[in-house]
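Students often ask why we bother predicting the structure of a whole assembly rather than each chain alone. The short answer is interfaces. A chain on its own may look different once its partners are present, and contacts between molecules only exist in the joint model. In this exercise we take two input lines together and write out one structure for the complete complex. Read the inputs first and try to guess which parts will touch.
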Amino acid sequence: MSYALETRGLCKRFGAIQVTSNVDLKIAHGARHALIGPNGAGKTTLVNLCTGMFKPSSGAILLNGSDITAISPQRRVGGGLVRTFQINTLFSGLTVAENLAIPVAQRLGRSWRPWGRTGSDRAVSENVARLLEDLKLLPLAAKKIADLAYGQRRLVEIAIALALEPKVLLLDEPAAGIPNGESGMILDLLERLPQDMSIVFIEHDMNLVFRFAKTISVLVEGAVLVEGSVADIRHDQRVRDVYLGRRHHD
Amino acid sequence: MNLPTSILLPAGALPHYRLGVMDVLPWIVALGVFFAFDTYLSLGAQILTMVIFGLSLDLALGFAGITTLGHAAFFGIGAYAAGYWNLHFTAEPLSGLLVAGLAAGAIGLLSGALLLRTHGLALLMLTMVVTVLLHEVANAWGSVTGGADGLSGVMPDALFRVFQFDLFGKTAYLYALGVLFLVFLVVRMVVNSPFGLSLRGVRENARRMHLVGASVHLRLVAAYAISAILAGIAGGLAAQLTRTVSLDRLTFQLSGDILIMLIIGGVGRLYGAFIGIPLYMLMLDRAAAVNPFHWMFFVGLALILLVRFAPGGLLALGDRGWGKGGKQ
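Now the answer. The structure tokens for the assembled complex follow.
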């Protein structure tokens, strides 16, 4: 069977340092798959490899069964593979609506159209409005990113990815920097995403991981240490030792 | 009627058309000058030409975020192309502008495809180098460009075969104003379009643009080429109105001047060129008349004050209170 996203023997070396070693990841359709592991385990590198920001040293990446290892990052997005960033990567000088109109116009194939006002384009503005309404961001539509609170920017970060209607969504620490008590708004958003969207997410907030994930892969030093259901991982002694255990004693 | 499609974006969320003071004022002033100050029409036409040049730079620099110190390259190519066309093919002025735009656009496309992989200071240097190279080519290729003497005797025929270019510069002024209006409409259309929005996206965050699936390089090259076409038209117009083309059209000095003038008005605001360029050129004109020896001192002083009190350009001052027309 084909997976939504699959890596085969994926390796990445920076000089002598092996940051990803022999990772075989299989993300099923509609997955809710968490990547966890201590800092420096190579989680973000894995996302960078999948989206084409880094070239793998060896191995292959398959999206929906077809090899995308040699394809440019832009074309991977066209194939439905979309990511978000751990550090907000937004169009700061533009309004919230404009931030979403860019990916919407891109998805609708209008981003090269040099005539007609973006605001008068019904398809674009309706899509943007509906997405903002969904995320309860509509009242902020005309605000510039620079005028938003941090948590709201975090939502826009994810919204830009959602505007592309991804088939596979890679979320790099969606709740990063959000105070503990407030990660609920990210969880709310994640739980309302369509079931057929396959989601891979990196997260350090274990409450969020255990509540949202169905499967978990634990990465240590670039390799997958163990993979399994939430219950398996919770009770795995190796994981406790290497990751959870150490965190609890901090 | 509560269909989901009835969700409306709040005003100002996406670029919307709203007629403001700034949409009307420049054109009223320009026409007012035509009737009230008919001894200044020659300076006026020069200013209008430079506003076209400034608009073209604003498209590249202000909207696409291409930091360039070589925009004179396109102005110069346009001037030489229009001059050569006038002397050797036909003196019909509009075809001259077309040729000027196409020649500059071709060079813009070519140099853009090569240079726009770089950013920041490297790009600044390379755009500058292109101008220097073209300057040397123009200097050496005497049979076409007239070398150090430049081209003279450029004499455009009557506009639309009706309006002779008269001694007082009335036709010239209205011709320049008409071309400016058309160029302005083109720039306004482009910057408010989905393509224009994607250019602003590239300016704000090229990395994210890649991962929205947009081809950043192609977009920059397209914007640069459009901008070059418009700068070429400005150069062609300058050649026709001054009736000469000289090497100083292809200098770093001109690239710097237009940049300063645009920054004075405000970058990335569509109307910045309409404010900064007339102000700067009138200031030069007046300062030189009042004190022919030390006039640059007063210009410098004015610039220091301006950068201190309006770092975002004069139009940025307006953001605090009056008028929403200039907001972009």
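Check your guess against this: The domain at 19-318 of chain B is CATH 1.10.3470 (ABC transporter involved in vitamin B12 uptake, BtuC).
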